Amino acid sequence: MCYSESMNAVCFRSINPEENRYRFYVILWTQTLWGTWAVVRRWGRIGADQTHELVHECANLDHALWVAADQIERRLRRGYKLVS
Fold first, then answer.
1. For residue 38, what are the contacts with CB-CB under 8 A and spacing of at least 6?
2. Residue 20 Cα distances to 46, 56, 57, angstroms
3. Radius of gyration (Cα) for the chain, nearest Å?
4. pLDDT tens string for the chain (84 positions)?
5. Which of 3, 13, 25 has the alpha carbon at shortest distance from 81?
6. Which pTM value belongs to this model?
7. Which residue among 2, 50, 63, 64 sits deepest, i.e. has the most Cβ atoms within 10 Å of its Cβ?
8. What are the CA-CA distances from residue 56 to residues 21, 22, 40, 81 (Å)?
9. How many CB atoms lie within 10 A of CB 6?
10. Burial 52-74 (b: 16+ CB within 10 A, else e)
């Protein structure tokens, strides 16, 4: 589950068969209908029907990019590998 390159999204995976870990994590930043910005985080098990989502509302693009960069750093520190 990832998005086209035209969208503002970063996709990660964390796979470790020995630990039965098959996870994905997507960080997406987009403008809302009201002109503000939002950072959307989606995560779950690869191949599972259920996913989780959290939306962080931001006042402007700079704040959205700061939130997205912070989350990207966290995923990398936790061992996720960049997919796109």
1. 29, 30, 31, 32, 55, 56, 57, 58, 64
2. 11, 30, 33
3. 13
4. 455 444 689 999 999 999 999 999 999 999 999 999 999 999 999 999 999 999 999 999 999 999 999 999 999 999 999 997
5. 13
6. 0.85
7. 64
8. 26, 25, 6, 23
9. 6
10. eeeebebeeeebbeebbeebbee
- Residue among 82, 84, 78, 80 at smallest CA distance from 14: 80
CA distances from 12 to 6, 32, 63, 69 (A): 17, 24, 22, 13
Identity of residue 6: S
User: From CA 35, how far away is CA 37, in angstroms rounded?
Assistant: 7
